[in-house]
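Running this now, will post back.
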Amino acid sequence: MPRDGAPRALNSLGFAKPVSETRVLVAMSGGVDSSVVAAMLAEEGYDVVGITLQLYDHGAALAKKGACCAGRDIHDARRVAESVGFPHYVLDYENVFRDAVIEEFADSYLAGATPVPCIRCNERVKFRDLLATAKDLDADCMATGHYIQRKLGPNGAELHCAADPARDQSYFLFSTTPDQLDYLRFPLGHLPNKDATRALAAKYGLPVADKPDSQDICFVPEGNYASVIEKLRPGAAEPGEIVHADGRVLGTHKGVIHYTIGQRRGLGIGGLDEPLYVVRLDVDARQVVVGPKEMLSTRIVPVREINWLGDAPLTSRPEWEVSVKVRSTRPPRAAILRPLSETEAEVELLTPEEGVSPGQACVLYETGGSRVLGGGWIWRGANRG
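Update: finished.
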């Protein structure tokens, strides 16, 4: 505190001490976003420590483009740290990542679900184990390159969508807990677009300024989920029947793991009068059930493992008017949230959506605003109609 007894002003990360005495761990993937965060904070004078996680056998993925946390990306993160001038460490999280993310991914697919492993990685690896490491290193906070905003409200830190809807990553961060949110910082969430981030990368002279964005799930080369599942679970791709919802057998398939709810192309059942879509996966019977598009329409969505970020307890009301996302690529839609417990609820979509699938996330937002109220996981067969 200053000698005159007045409270010290907060620095840009929200701490009442000089930036040079504020240590921040930056989670660095080797991409442009996290590299800009590290460079930005270092330029401001913060005590920056960069950490990159080795999540899988990067030797096998060294030459693979379009994925994060591969060997090339570890090398790029190190180059950024060297060019800016802050310490950088690589932590081997292969076993943690396999147990916490990859194994569940395989089991979910085998159960006919459509998992979102990036959410589990944030929840179980980056925002749990890496965050604990940050505290072990006496860091005051941990910063990431995610496009989402942390704002202080009357009851503490709140999670809000990014300023740029096209870059918003709130769907993938709904499981961030209040305690984690207190410790995390997202310096890019207010930027108007990705061009602004790349302009900062050029300003700082970063060697990754022109690096393409990651696109694939890091352990799924070329987006080929089935090949990954077959390696993890030999024999998983057992053949079976493609069956119409009315019971007709229309053909055969090479394994349920090759199909997802809502899929139309690649069914191999041409020559029919109507376009057909995958409406259900019956893993036990090894059947891919297809039907007309209207069968994909879903109104009631069961949700569990809810992480609630609202001010009042979830169960304090019988109903909440919210907006929800049931896919990362879709805009929020009006819905009614009916809590069943502190971690389970039923979501009624006021306008039915197509392709709602178990294993996907249902993310909750305040109606007409940017605040993220939490979310959970879609399970069972969502009710159609």
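The first strand starts at residue 23 and ends at 27. More later if anyone needs it.
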